[in-house]
Amino acid sequence: MELLLVDDDATDRELFAHAVSMTGKEHKIQEAQNGEVALQYLHSANHLPDLIILDLNMPIKDGRETLAELKASPRLRNIPVCIMSTSSAPFDIESAYNTGANLFLVKPFDFKKLIEMLTSLLTLFSTYVTLPNRRLS
């Protein structure tokens, strides 16, 4: 499974990659430090990720703007997007779903909980979810 992790915090990206490696399955992870970098990558990619993990609060182009642009793009709109944020504010959750997020997860502060969350998420997406064929030639 190919993932795109969009998060401005380098430590969070490193913890995420380490937690994914502990899930027991191999997944390819691309990283972007903000929404602008993520969108540039996606618009130029030869094939698209199976899942985007998107933080909300980032400089330059935040997760809210990025999600809106993803869902407005005919090429990108069908990529599942999971918001993973420290925010649990009802406004952020409702806004994310209204804009087209497929899931909203609150980042756990405990590394063990992060591994459990990612194991469940990635098992769901790699085993049970049927995704549209987005491979480009």
Automatic annotation (TrEMBL):
Occurrences of domain Response regulatory (ranges): 2-122
Entry's Gene Ontology BP terms: phosphorelay signal transduction system
Keyword ATP-binding: no
Modification 4-aspartylphosphate occurs at: D55
Keyword match Phosphoprotein: yes
Gene3D superfamilies: 3.40.50.2300
Domain of life assignment: Bacteria
Key words, A-Z: Phosphoprotein
Pfam family, one: Response_reg
Protein name from the UniProt record: Response regulator
Biological source species: Spirosoma taeanense
